[in-house]
Every structure is written in C-alpha cells, then in structure tokens.
Design a protein that fits this description.
Blueprint lengths: L11 H9 L11 E7 L6 H10 L9 E6 L2 E7 L3 H10 L26 H22 L4 H11 L5 H9 L2 H8 L5 E5 L14 E5 L2 E2 L6 E2 L2 E5 L7 E4 L6 E6 L2 E7 L6 H10 L10 E7 L5 H4 L6 H13 L2 E2 H5 L6 E5 L4 E5 L2 E5 L4 E7 L12 E6 L9 E6 L6
Parallel strand pairs: 4-19, 11-12
Antiparallel strand pairs: 1-3, 2-3, 4-8, 5-8, 6-7, 9-10, 10-11, 12-16, 13-16, 14-15, 17-18, 18-19
C-alpha cells in the first residue's frame, strides 16, 4: 500500500519563493548582473556550488557560474537578489570582488597574445566575455533565458544578432520552426509557474507546475501550443490533476500527461483508472500522449521493464488501447542521454501515443537531430481527421522531459 504523504511545511524560504511570483518587480531592478568572488585556488562549478550550499545560499538564484580569471568566480543573479547575496556573504565574512572587470585586457594570459597590442587584447577580452555569456544562455531555461538575453543586450554585452539567435533557438521557437505544419504541440515537464507565458504567436494553454521549495521554478507542468491557423476550435477541458492537460479538437479527445517517476505504484494505477476515455457524446476517439516514465520490453521494445511499465501495459490491455509506439516505432528510444562519467549512452522509451480507436494514415517520427537542450526527443505523430468540412491532416507533437538543466 502507498505510504501516506506528509503535508509540506510552509517554511520561510518557501514562503518567500511563492511571494516572489506575485510581487511587482521594480523596473530599475528588472535585469541581471554578475557578482564576483575571490577564489583561493582552482575549483569546478560543482565545487563552488557545494560551498555556496553549505553557506545556506539558495543555488537556484544563481543562474550561471564560471571562472573568468585566475582566482575569480563570476555568479549571475537577478538585480533584486544581488544585495541579498552580498549581505549573506558579508555575514559569513566573505567580501565580493567589486574591482573585477571582465573586459580588462590584463586578464588575457594566452601566451599567443603576449605581443598583441592593447587594442587587440581588449578585443580578445570582449570575445572571451561574450563567449561566457552565450555559454550561460545555452544552459538557462526558457523563458528566463530570453529575459537574461535581453538584459545582456541592454548592457551591450551581446549584439542584436546574438539576441535574435537566442530568441530563434529557444525551445518553443525550435519546436514551432521545426514543425511549422503541426496543429498541436504538447510539451511536458515545463517547470513553468503561473502566470509565466512562452513568447510565441501560437495560442497556449498550461497546466502550470507546482512550486518547489527554495527555488524560483516549479515541478512538472504541461503546455499546449495551438497553431495560429488551426481550422478547428480547440476546447480545453477542466482538470484538477497536476499531471494532466486535456482538450477536444473536432471529435477527438486528447489527454496529455506527465507522470513523474516519484509517483508510487498506487498513484499511477489510480491516475490511469480515473482517466476518462470519453467525456462527451461528441467524441469518437481518444488520444493519450505524454511522458509516462513507464518502460516495457515486450510492449515498447525498451531494454528493461519497470513497475510503471507493467501497470501501463495491464491498463492498455484492459482498455483495449492501441500503442502507436508499438505499431510505428517499436524499439526506437524517445530518451537519449549521454553519460560522460560512464562513457555510455542511456536510452529508454518513455514518450508515448495511445488511442482508443484506430487513426487514419497514422505516421510517427522521432526527431533525434532536433536539439531541445533535453535528453527527450520530440515525438511527432500525424494522422487525418475525416469530418466535414474536410480539414487538413492534423499533426500532433509531444516533446517531453526537462527542457534544460
């Protein structure tokens, strides 16, 4: 039986995190800056973050850490958090390095530049500084990434071209640009907290993430993007589950789900048992998609089977559902992770499409070459709807997983 979960205590830090989401930001402080710390010796980013954690610093407020010079660490924070961090450090007897200039030509220590002119060294310092900024933007999640990039542009740290490139390569823009003919795009594990919105011309709906203690992000979350020229109205159906976003388009009911691996077997069984396969007499087929975190060798061609996979297969059999991964992409992983410390590639099949009735002209493609800064790969399912008036083929895309680390 499932162990009852304790009610989460509202700590001071968790309360502060919640308040931040409903507090107006002073326009003068609406930006980001780097703070600089002295370091006595060489260390890794993990080393420094562990030190900060032991000093009771909220690491989620530190968006980037890098080392721009010997014995100097750079920490990217929101302007509002900067005085809080500085006070924390002062209480521990730690002074910030307020004299450091990342554009100082003196920090260029490359032997190949020893005979360079001052102007050449200044130019090189600017190039190195910008490379650190662009590297940071690669690891910051949407939509915070876009906010940070715009702050960098206001400070003239990056160019208009750099900003445009960041906007075009954001996760949502990557999806809409890669799959421009898709009618619907579902994204799971968004981490987005209300009322955050993606910067896109597509209509969007959210099952927002739940707040996480001591962080500015959420847990879980599902988003639906609707093509601006979608010919059918898309009706969003109410749900109280944090793991579900449901809608109806034409006569098709669609459930998108994200079942986190932390759920107990009982919770998974209860969720599936309570999932309605029809909610209205106008519905003639139901599509269930998303990240189930369920693995099964016989059902999916995965390399192993877990408890959620056994539960899912039993439910599919009992409800006589069709698993389209089994029919169209058996054995093809939707999760591909490169584990450097193991020097190995870890794969699994987690992102699935199921339906209660057959789909006409169904085709599935897993896009391994699309970079979403996630180990999950976009899974694209296309099929035809045959209701009057004749609509175009409706393509549905599921992109699952943590979109950035």
């Amino acid at each position: 039986s499932a162990r009852p979960r304790r009610a989460r205590q509202l700590t001071v830090r968790r309360s502060a995190a919640l308040v931040r989401h409903i507090t107006r930001v002073d326009p003068e402080n609406n930006g980001y800056k780097y703070l600089y710390l002295y370091t006595r010796h060489r260390m890794t980013v993990s080393n420094l973050r562990n030190i900060l954690k032991k000093l009771k610093v909220d690491n989620s407020r530190i968006l980037d850490v890098h080392f721009p010079d010997r014995q100097v660490a750079a920490l990217l924070v929101h302007n509002e958090y900067a005085p809080v961090f500085e006070e924390q450090m002062a209480q521990k007897g730690v002074s910030l390095n307020k004299d450091f200039d990342p554009l100082d030509p003196a920090i260029i220590r490359d032997p190949a530049m020893q005979d360079a002119t001052l102007e050449e060294r200044q130019e090189k310092a600017g190039v190195v500084h910008k490379s650190h900024l662009l590297a940071a933007l690669n690891f910051i999640r949407d939509p915070v990434k876009i906010s940070v990039a715009r702050s960098f542009r206001r400070q003239n740290w990056i160019t208009d071209e750099d900003l445009t490139a960041v906007l075009e390569t954001s996760t949502v823009n990557t999806l809409t640009n890669t799959f421009p003919s898709s009618t619907l795009i579902f994204i799971t594990e968004t981490w987005l907290l209300s009322p955050t919105r993606y910067l896109t011309s597509w209509t969007q709906h959210h099952t927002y993430a739940t707040p996480v203690t001591n962080t500015t992000r959420g847990r879980n979350g599902i988003a639906l993007l609707i093509h601006p020229e979608c010919r059918y109205p898309v009706n969003i159906l109410p749900s109280t589950s944090p793991y579900l976003l449901s809608c109806q388009i034409a006569d098709l009911l669609i459930h998108c789900t994200y079942l986190p691996p932390s759920l107990t077997n009982t919770e998974v069984e209860t969720f599936l048992a309570d999932l309605p396969l029809l909610t209205h007499s106008s519905q003639f087929n139901t599509l269930i998609c998303g990240d189930f975190n369920a693995r099964h060798t016989q059902l999916l061609g995965d390399r192993r089977t877990n408890a959620s996979g056994r539960i899912l297969r039993r439910w599919i059999t009992e409800e006589r559902l069709t698993c389209w991964n089994q029919q169209l992409a058996f054995g093809k992983p939707t999760f591909v992770a490169h584990r450097i410390h193991r020097q190995a590639e870890e794969t699994s099949i987690l992102d699935l499409f199921l339906s209660t009735c057959p789909l006409q002209d169904a085709r599935m493609n897993i896009s391994y070459d699309v970079d979403l800064t996630s180990d999950h790969k976009p899974v694209h399912l296309s099929f035809s709807l045959t209701l009057p008036p004749p609509p175009p083929a409706s393509d549905i895309l599921v992109s699952s997983g943590a979109l950035a680390s």
